[in-house]
Specification:
The chain is mostly helical. The protein has one domain. Helix content is 94%, strand content 0%. The protein contains 1 helix and no strands.
Amino acid sequence: MKFVSKKAREANEARRKAEAELEREARLLELEK
């Protein structure tokens, strides 16, 4: 059970990081317009 929750937490962190990257790229594109 602990192992599963650790994996889930890592997946959530990875998704949050990916979303933050996409948001930053979107903001940069907005600035370039």
